[in-house]
Amino acid sequence: MKRLLIISLLMLATISCGKKATVHIKAINAVTGEPYAGLAYGITATRTGNNGEKLVYEERGFLDANGEAYVPIRVRTGRTYNVGITDPPNTCYVNNIKYTFGKEDIPNLDYQFEFAECGYLQLKVKNINCFNSNDVITFNTQPLNLDGYNNINPQTKTGCYDNEFIDSQVPYGPWIATWQVTKNGLTTNHDSTFYINENQHYYFLLEY
Q1: CA 186 → CA 39, 107, 126, 136, distances in Å?
Q2: pTM above 0.90, yes or no
Q3: Of the four, 97, 112, 162, 180, which is 20 to 30 A from 72 by CA?
Q4: pLDDT at 17
Q5: Higher per-residue pLDDT: 193 or 47
């Protein structure tokens, strides 16, 4: 009976202590792949008790010169953990504001944050060879390599369209403009790539 009690207590202690793991955090520039050094990170845990859920910091620190941190942590059953990181200055894109994991996710605790700084894009769309009111254009602009980001949804305009959009803050890097034009029953497709530098005001003229 005494031995059974000791075994039960040891099992309970093991469960309450959790399982040791290492969380790998990395931050890179989504356009260049270069690391961000010195960004602050935090790992929080959500605990559920008699008074509801409580959020507490488990670990916090700063990324090294390679934009990385290897953080030892004890992951306990029944808790949800979040990995967050501070954004670099002038950020217009982040691939994930936080990552969530639990004990079942060990050992796959590798989390990469990707950022891109801001530039500016101004778009002018003009039908310079208008055929009639049945002319149609569908156009869009978006970054070439930033997953999940859309500057605007594709827009469709008709007739002798002529409009200049306001200067918008967007992630810097390579972009592509695509447009489909229908005139006099003939449909053509077009695209053009361009590059917006950090803090640059880029003017794109789309004539069709």
Answers
A1: 53, 56, 18, 10
A2: no
A3: 97
A4: 63
A5: 193
